[in-house]
Amino acid sequence: MDLLALLAIQVLYAVAGLALISVGLAIIFGMMRVINLAHGEFLMLGGYAAIVATSHGINIWVAILVVAPIVVGAIGILVERTIIRFLYGRMIDTMLATWGLSLLLVGLTTAVFGNTTVGISAPLGSIQIGAYRTSAYTLFVIAVAIAVLAGIFAVLRWTRLGLIARGTMQNASMAAALGVNPPRVYAVTFGIGAALTGLAGAVLAPVSGVFPTIGVAYVAKSFITVIGGGAAVLSGTVSASALFGTINQIATFVTTPVFGEVALLAAAIVLIRILPQGITGRFFRRSL
Amino acid sequence: MTARAWNIVGLVVVAVVGLGFLVLTPRLVELDTVLELTVYLIMAILALSLALIWGYGGILCFGQSAFFGLGAYTYAIAVFNIGESTVPLLLAIALPAAFASLLGYFVFYGRISDVYLGVITLTVTLILFNSINSTAGPEFHIGSARLGGFNGIPGIPPLNIPGNRSAVIDLEGMFYLATASLLIVYFGLRLLLVSRFGRVIVGIRENEQRAELLGYDSRAYKLATFTIGGALAGFAGCLFANWGSFVSPTIFGLSQSAQIIIWVIVGGRGTLIGPIIGCIGIQWLGTALGANQPSGSGSWANIFSNVPLVLGAILIAFVLLVPKGLVPTLADWGLRILRTRLPALPQRGADRVESERPERA
User: Fold this and answer.
1) What is the pLDDT of residue B355?
2) Please, are residues B278 and B266 in contact by the beta-carbon 8 Å criterion?
3) Does residue A288 belong to any structural domain of this protein?
4) Looking at A22-26, A98-102, B241-245, B298-302, which range is the least confident one?
5) How many domains does chain A have?
6) Which residues of A touch B258 (CB under 8 A)?
7) pTM (2 decimals)?
8) Cross-chain Cβ contact B261/A223 below 8 Å
9) Which CATH number covers residue A153?
10) Is A139 near chain B, with CB under 8 Å?
11) Which of A104, A218, A275 to mutate to test the interface with B (most CBs of B within 10 A)?
């Protein structure tokens, strides 16, 4: 029974982790049709932002929840203004340019921080479940994921900003005719996607540590989650992370973490073959 | 001169330069330079494999290094088990080709769009990297070959003359083999591209729907292109395993995949000579930058010797500023200058297939 509860927490944690690292990408890809291959590096930058801020004496919660999103969001807007905006509608070229950006950021952080793993110790202690112990930080990650997803839902569904964003993504010229400034909407959307990515990177930094090439570990997982999820930003992310996170965690439990990842990636390829439009291409079609 | 005449001049120039290079280089330069050049040429074959499937087939494969690595690993494992190198060489071509056709069947017959194809190939590469990387223990072996995990497989026996196990290839022989292979692959691909098959795959790249309405099964043509690309990459991988007599999982790595893409985009999509030039140029640049490691000097030198950073900057710059790549851009400039000098020159541009095309979402 205790073991089952522990396994349930681990599965939830895997799902929450996937949803967190994917949701920023889902916003950028789902709403703007831009494939950002530097996504993993945005996560990495979020981790570094939190660690640098903490080492300068800023409270760790402020560093993770405030500093990291702001820093990476600003970087995102800068990237959108200098690179992405010239490439809208040229999907392959955005992929290539952001891949270049990814290499550039890896090189830059290696030059600045060195090729070593830095970390911050996970705050909060551990909690007892029967005979087992698990880190309370796990529960914090799950809570952040739920809060982020709920926040995105609320913004998209109920605010004027969300309405404008959804309208512009559906039909930019119609939105422009109604007085919206599409370039600004694109820049802000990209910035928000980057900020959420930075937040995810910072939240996961105490768990995994941060090093310049950590993005590689994240990028494939977040991509297949977004693509497996399909066009709808929220329900796609949630359903795909639920599916892949469960597969990953159970395979990890039965074999090793490495084959857990391999099972995740293999499951994703099969899913894309069966549902080329992703889960929300077939189910929950009218959701956000 | 007509376009056909220009083409023949180009082919003759490549043949003369290539043969001259093949014969003269080992006589003119030191052995270590020959060794360095050999790996450039092996990688150029890899560049050609992507030049075919991306530049002409319009299939953006982010995982060309998967086939390359598979070829290298297949050769290594097979040669340890078999001893004689002819069958391992053939296996190193056949297995990646079979894998490419399986993956291609999955993707093209599933009608998965370009962009998803890129992500799927990237994912497959990562799966291979993760799996091989975690096989360090002695329990992971195929026959008598230990997989070695992140340590790689050292001491791979070199190729031998078919049928004669003791006549193994030496370093200079490896250079001749690589150069000759590159020339054969280059001219083979030229031949393939002027054939009916080549015309059809370019037609599909330009407009898949139109090609289908004309009765061509674009899925089958793309699958065939992809398989040929996989076979070529596997062959390059086999040569690479021979060159260093060592393979490690890093050849599946993302930076390897990125390099292949960069070679093709820098050299020019829709040409064959461009990716070769791009490949050799970028590799030379990487070696030159890496060799000039600053001895504790300023941070600027530190940044310029940082290969990923420079490669990333090059990739961004080319996508934004020179999207067609070096060779097509230079050819356009050359033609423009010629045309202003000689107004009577016929329009050659109409004959050459444009590498640009409208993107589909």
Assistant:
1) 46
2) yes
3) no
4) B298-302
5) 1
6) 99, 103
7) 0.84
8) no
9) 1.10.3470
10) no
11) A104
Residue B361 predicted with pLDDT over 50: no
Task: Render A102-119 in DSSP notation, one character per residue.
Answer: HHHHHHHHHHHH-SS-B-
Domain edges within chain B = 14-253
Contact assessment for residue B238 and residue B75, using Cβ atoms and an 8 Å cutoff: yes
Q: Average pLDDT of chain A?
A: 86
Q: Is B347 on the interface with A (CB under 8 A)?
A: no
Instruction: To the nearest 10°, report the CA torsion of B42, B44, B50, B55.
Output: -160
> B119, A224: Cβ pair inside 8 Å?
yes
Q: Where are the beta strands (DSSP E) in A55-154?
A: 126-129, 132-135
Q: Tell me if A93 and B319 make a contact (CB, 8 A cut-off).
A: yes
Strand partners, B145: B142
A95 vs B118: CB contact, 8 Å cut-off? yes
Residue identified by tokens 């509608």 is A89
Cα gap B240→A154, rounded to integer Å: 54
Contacts of B312 in chain A (CB under 8 A): 99-107
pLDDT (tens digit per residue) in B144-197: 777 777 788 888 888 877 777 777 788 888 899 999 999 999 999 999 999 999
The mean pLDDT of A122-144, rounded to a whole number, is 79
Q: What is the pLDDT of residue B344?
A: 59
**In Å, what is the CA distance from B315 to each residue of A40, A70, B321?**
18, 27, 10
A287 in any annotated domain: no
- Asked if the structure places residue A31 within a domain, the reply is yes
| Amino acid found at B281 | G
A111 touches chain B (CB under 8 A): yes
The interface predicted TM-score of the complex, written ipTM, equals: 0.81
CA B50 to chain CA mean position, Å? 5
| Structure confidence by residue, pLDDT tens digits, A142-169 | 999 999 999 999 998 899 888 888 888 8
Measured CA to CA in angstroms, residue A2 lies from A44, A242, A249, B31 at distances of: 35, 22, 17, 66
Q: Could you tell me the residue range of the domain that residue A185 belongs to?
A: 2-282
Chain A interface includes B102 (CB < 8 A): no
Residue A220: what pLDDT? Answer: 81
Count chain A–chain B contacts defined by CB atoms under 8 A.
134
B31 CB within 8 Å of a chain A CB: no
pLDDT on residue B359: 44
Is pLDDT above 90 for A45?
A: yes
pLDDT at B349 exceeding the cut of 60: no
B115 near A CB under 8 A: yes
From B316's Cα to the closest Cα of chain A, the distance in A is 5
Taking the CA of residue B207 and the nearest CA in chain A, the distance in Å comes to 16
Does the residue A219 lie in any domain? yes
B12 φ/ψ sector (left φ>0, alpha ψ -120 to 50, else beta):
alpha
Please state, in angstroms and rounded to a whole number, the distance separating the CA atoms of residues A262 and B141: 19
Mutate to test the interface with B, among A25, A78, A84, A103 (most CBs of B within 10 A): A103
Task: Extract the tokens encoding A108.
Answer: 């830059």
Q: Which chain A residue lies closest to B58 (C-alpha atoms)?
A: A92
| Residue A211 Cα, gap to closest chain B Cα (Å) | 15
Beta bridge partners of A199: none
